[in-house]
Amino acid sequence: MKALIIDGKQISKEIRDKLKSEVADLKTKGKVPGLAVILVGEDPASTIYVNGKQKACQEIGLYSRVYKLDDSIAEKELLSLISDLNFDSEIHGILVQLPLPKHIDENRIIQAVNPNKDVDGLHAMNIGKLTNGQDCFVSCTPKGIIELIKQTKQDMVGKHAIVVGRSNLIGKPVAQLLLNQNATVTICHSKTIDLAAYTKSADILVAATGVPELISGDMIKPDAIVIDGGTTKVNGKLKGDVHFESACEVAGYITPVPGGVGPMTITMLLENTIEACKQYG
Question: Which CATH number fits domain 139-262: 3.40.50.720, 3.40.50.1240, 3.40.630.30, 1.10.540.10?
Fold first, then answer.
């Protein structure tokens, strides 16, 4: 094994220790960062994520509320709850767990969240600010990915970064964040012809497609930084977008699945909530 492992668990723990101290300091000033998480339905994966978020809040001292709603809830009822939370002084961050049931317009729900409480960074105003290079709440997984790249101490300026995936949750925002770091960015996707021709040129390769082991070692440039943002269950085990064993023989740095990007997502959510409290609480 050649590649150095970027340990998302350890990096996340170090950041959370700092956040815990920050929360304690805010409490001495009479401020308690508060996060509201809305879960519609009983999707098993979503339930696990929400429970993880609640546990993380408790660990560092955040106030948290979880709203578990029936999947038959009317869209107007969900919008009413979000409206109440927008004006709730105890709540600084609002996160609506996706996906939502088909009868609910996800975009309408996301845009209903006050941009100053949009700790998931999905509101059009925050996305616009990100594109403009302004301070804003950044989607948690992309923000975590950039932090993991920074942990390698490798300069991103001028490097060729390839993002495989164009979703609104990961692909597009992480590409913008890399561009804001002055990397040269190419986005690839399911329609890209000869994907390997692109990935082999990447100094920084971010895979976020949800296609298990799409990227093999022979598709990676020697000494590249490889960030695996994919998670798919295969025969009961989590698999990433990158074939880990073969990639390790070529890459300079790599994130594992699990234990890479995953832990950073919740940590960035905590960080965004604390920032919302400091700025707007």
Answer: 3.40.50.720
